[in-house]
Amino acid sequence: MEQLWDAETARRYDTPGTGMFAPEVLGPTVDRLVALADGGRALELAIGTGRVAVPLRERGVPVTGIELSPHMVEQLRTKVDEDTIPVVLGDMATATAPGEFSLVYLVFNTIANLLTQEEQVACFRNAARHLVPGGRFVIELWVPELRKLPPGVGATVWLNEPGYIGLDTYDVLHQRVVSHHFRFDDSRKAELGRTPHRYIWPSELDLMAQLAGFVLESRDADWSGEEFTADSRSHVSVYRRD
Q: What positions does the domain Methyltransferase occupy (predicted)?
């Protein structure tokens, strides 16, 4: 997985003001995390280039990160130094950061980057190890779109816009999906990137939480607190450590 987040990917990752960096996306995320931290320290698993951590730190929440890719951390260091946001290089399922935290969070579907159920369960247990009693673990995750797959069809187009097509291919036997990212212009050339994931149903996620000593505190459709329904495409789930 580390090779997916190379220097070129890290360099192109940030899109200030647009996409997942848009104020209407990032603002509610940071607002909710500030409230959930409740005056304590926060740990971000897979901190990346600091999309969420930097504005969260600016809001007064002490943030530490764990990150697998040194290239992503190098990009983060163009924004803040190690004293401001310390980062431990390592796998989010096993690496440990010093101290205890009132909040651990994992955003933008990143738990699905762990490609086995065992690794995903280990990630929950790692989060629990870092939390004080009563601390919270927050996960933002998409809902598998298998209802869009008629018999015999193994792929869905999830985004089609000028210069970009996003397509997912499914292996429903092993709960695997590969996202294909096609970027193109008016020439005859296109660029393709692929990212593998293991998708998780909300009920399976809840069982992973139970195995790690968590209880589900809330589940919303987004960071603003919209109701989660059968038609929701993603969710923000908050688990509390017993």
A: 43-135
